Amino acid sequence: MRDGIVHLPASRWCRYGHYLLGTTTGADDEPEIRNAQASTGGLIVKSSIFTPDFVDRSYWLTSLPQMGSSAEPLPARIDALIVGAGLTGLTAGHDLSRSGRRVVILDSGEPGEGASSRNAGMLGRNTKHSFLGLSKSAGQDVAIRYFRDLHRVFLSSIERIEAEKISCNYQQNGRVVVAHTQQQFNGLRAEYEARAEYLGEKISILDEGVQSEVGSKSFVGGVYVHDNGAVHPGQYTRAFIARAKAAGASIIGKTVVQSIRREKDGFLVKTSNGMVRARDVLLCSNGYTASLIPWIARRLIQIESYIVATEPLPADVVQSVFPRNRTYIDSTRRPMSMRLSSDGMRIVFGARTGEPKNQPIRETARLIYDDLTTTFPQLRGYRLANAWGGRCGVTWDHFPHVGQHEGMHYALGFNFSGLAMAPYLGEILARQVLGAAPDTDFQTRSFPSVLMPARAFDAAVTRRVIRYYGWRDHASMRPAS
Questions:
Q1: Has residue 23 got a pLDDT over 90?
Q2: Which has fewest Cβ within 10 Å: 76, 135, 206, 352?
Q3: Rounded to a whole number, what is the distance in angstroms from the first to the last CA of the chain?
């Protein structure tokens, strides 16, 4: 990277180009989409993997009462307009409103129904960077400072939940990170032993003991991270809506921001619901932002993430899969996330990150079901009740970023780890608007881009990035020589 811009050497394109562009020959990388089959009187009958009341909506939202919103009239002039009613925007709106600013938070859909209410609800020190990798590339002091920042983010989430008595089914049940191969496990062990030594993280190494944590023969070992937790992300997001409203912020859904024009004393914002003038504009829509601001489009890759939830399962089946009711994730670059629903009756399973967003959700769900039942054969025959997706924002350097562009404030690039990070950066963003100087590297770090037109960031680019992740995962799955 030079001058904040990613330059890809020609040799690297030559080496990986055919793979990334999808021009390799041979069998399809993806497994076939298979239906469960039952034999009846010599006939093969295809049985559905979906319940009769299956819905393509987040389980976390269908388990809550419908909220509903309407496109209310916009005021003519306000102090702060926030684009995106997710955890970032709601937190920034809450803090600015409490400081006396007149705030409107807009969302193109239903407020609070974006990525934060659609994720797996895992709370921890999440990052796409490894401590050892960052120590090698940037130096150990930088790595320690960054991971301590992540710990501060994590602690701020827990402190907020406890201090404000946020009702979100919070459980500090720990997380198990699992490895498919000995090569992966060796790397995982080295990483977490370094975190324990330099950062004080409390961990336990699981080799044969991994079977007592997760009921699958797919994993050779893992690491148990003691203090990680879980929430019901639908309840969590609803609580942030309530606290922003209580502070005085107006939250308006079903309103698409179409353009933002800078003026002498602020901004003129055109929406599907009319025009509004604002002294400050805050961009808080993460993976949904790129089409609005070309400058951001060159810095943010939009990637779809997917999750399924099973129908309610018998208690003995649940016990056979997750005997200790923790959260679980594997150590690949396209990870599988696994946990129980908050009521302990369903498996919530995420996989197939980067599948095309225009692919029918049932088709994606079939692929995930294949991964689910391959990992946990005891779940074959049980059906899916929900399948859904959400758009994530991934940066080229895999760091989150807070800053300003042409006078607009932004907090973007959570890299699949927004549950704790988004509210924290919302607080940082509000302080930035109020003229404070936040003490965080997230604000001072340069924001790398690529030298290509914004329109190039389409599904094809996403597929190539995901293929690259797949290539790296495939390499780590090879048996050690």
A1: no
A2: 76
A3: 33
Q: What's the burial of 114, exposed, middle or buried (CB within 10 Å: 0-12/13-18/19+)? A: buried
Question: Which residues are bridge partners to 32 per DSSP?
Answer: none
Q: Which residues contact 334 (CB under 8 A, 6 or more apart)?
A: 351, 352, 353, 354, 466, 469, 470, 473
In a domain, residue 122? The reply is yes
The per-residue pLDDT for range 328-351, each reduced to its tens digit, is 999 988 899 999 999 999 999 999
- In 3D space, the residue among 345, 288, 354, 351 whose CA is nearest the CA of residue 318 turns out to be 345
Name residue 106's beta-bridge partners.
Answer: 83, 252
Q: Considering the domain boundaries, does residue 235 fall inside one?
A: yes
Burial label for 172, CB within 10 Å (0-12, 13-18, 19+), is exposed
The answer as to whether 70 is a domain residue is yes
Q: For residue 100, which amino acid is it?
A: G
d(CA 448, CA 411): 14
- Single pTM value for the model: 0.86
Angle at 8 between CA 4 and CA 10, to 5 degrees: 150
Q: How many domains does the chain have?
A: 1
Q: Tell me, yes or no, whether 224 lies in a domain.
A: yes
**Which CATH number do you get for residue 51?**
3.50.50.60
